[in-house]
Design goal:
The protein is mostly beta strands. The protein is built from no helices and 8 strands. A hairpin with a 1-residue loop joins strand 2 and strand 3.
Length: 137
Amino acid sequence: MATARGRFEVQLAATGGEPPGENPHLGRNLVDKRYFGDLDASSHGEMLTAITPVEGSAGYVLLERVEGNLSGRPGSFVLQHYGRLTRGTATLTIEVVPDSGTDGLVGLQGHMTIRIETDGTHFYEFDYRLPASSGGP
């Protein structure tokens, strides 16, 4: 496997969900990201959230189409997020949707981890594999 590293910026825009006060509160957001570093790309996606009345407990799912260059290879792919916060303890799984890669990223497989610094800066680490026919690791 190869590893791509860098930072990203994210913008959320609420697009619906339930009115405040519903428990658990269900929400919907549009997500726009810009990746820098080994992954030089932009992404657009949609996130669904559930925020419970228990402090620090929530969940989200997100699908995002990433378009740009991964270590110099052009193409696009889709990331699927599954996040959960249980009374302040977070778990997050981010994986490439199988067979979603295009152009130089056909056959892409992998998973991503993210880290958010106290100043709000977001970083990613993306462990991935490309088939030999795509010229990947």
